[in-house]
Design brief:
The protein is an alpha+beta fold. The protein has two domains: 128 residues, NADH Oxidase (3-Layer(aba) Sandwich), CATH 3.40.109; 75 residues, NADH Oxidase. Helix content is 33%, strand content 17%. The strands form two sheets. The protein has a four-stranded antiparallel beta sheet with strand order 1-2-4-3. A two-stranded antiparallel sheet has the order 5-6. Helix 2 runs antiparallel to helix 3 and helix 3 packs across helix 6. The chain is globular, with a radius of gyration of 17 Å.
Amino acid sequence: MGQFEIMRARHSVRQFIDKPLAADAVEKLRTEIDTCNREGGMHIQLITDEPEAFQAGKTSYGQFKCCKNYLAIVGTKDKDVEAGYYGERVVLKAQELGINSCWVALTYKKGKARYVEEAGEKLYLVIALGYGVTIGVPHRGKTVAQVSDYKDGDPEWYKNGVEAALLAPTAINQQKFRFERDGDKIRAKVAGFGFYTKIDLGIVKYHFEIGSGKGKDVWA
């Protein structure tokens, strides 16, 4: 699949089958993580075969079943946007490898999670990984007009970028972001108040870059 198809196929999954991640997939994920950490100054870590953080077996709302693998999104304390941007980059790589995922801020045991936190760093959140019982389902979201100043006659790449951003996961599906175009450059910003909006902004910026085909040079 192409990147746009991968974004369309990826949905949040909380229940997984009890199966370890394939060794070749783990290797490819670690390679992607290393690249993201170098580029973004992050300290993202892949933890495998560790059931304590997600209390494997629970199935009540907000809890997880058989989650023994996750990404720890760690970085310095000024990296909210990067945490979202590079976390989502790894998430889409996982989806490409057939691994389902779910961004998680609260419904896990932080004290049980196994990750390394250097001086000046913090754990932003974690991302559950595994082979889902289902592939998840899409959720109803906002329209292009609600999150951007796109209008008829604007470049097709702009619309494609916004549509890709609307496929991005955001906290409680709040989609509190906005894009504005100035020629061939785009301004992306948080729109309103909400939980984890700066992390969400990083996630949607990565989606926009992929959908528009413009890469990082698109930003004003």
